[in-house]
Amino acid sequence: MHGLGRARGTLLRTVRRRSLSVAIGAALVVPAVWVEVVSPGVPWWVEGVSVVLGGTGAALIWAGLRGPQADWIDS
């Protein structure tokens, strides 16, 4: 469990740095799109990994473009 906490902390620090977040997100999305669109006949698990990496990359790009947001707004 110690490794998961360290990975979570790294991910949260990455999201706070907006330009790095967009760059890493694009680096994950581009190969994922290439696997899904261009390369036919890849094993099923490669498609699954590309979907997960593409979704993670899209989330990092979104977080980098939107910036930190409040969890709630007090009225």
Give, in order, the helices and strands: HHH
User: How many DSSP helices?
Assistant: 3
Structural class: mainly alpha
Principal-axes geometry comes out as: globular
Count of β-strands = 0
Please report which band the strand proportion falls in: under 5%, 5-15%, 15-25%, 25-35%, 35-45% or over 45%. Answer: under 5%
Cα separation of the termini? 38 Å
Rg from Cα: 15 Å
Largest sheet: none
What is the typical, i.e. mean, pLDDT? 90
Q: What is the helix content?
A: over 70%
User: Uncertain spans, ≥5 residues at pLDDT below 50?
Assistant: none
Protein described:
The protein has helices at residues 2-16, 18-37, 44-66. It has 75 residues and is an all-alpha fold. α2 runs antiparallel to α3. It is globular and about 50 Å long.
Task: Supply database-style keywords.
single chain, 75 residues, mainly alpha, 3 helices, 0% strand, globular
Kindly summarize this structure in a few lines.
This protein has 75 residues and is mainly α. The chain is built from three helices and no strands.
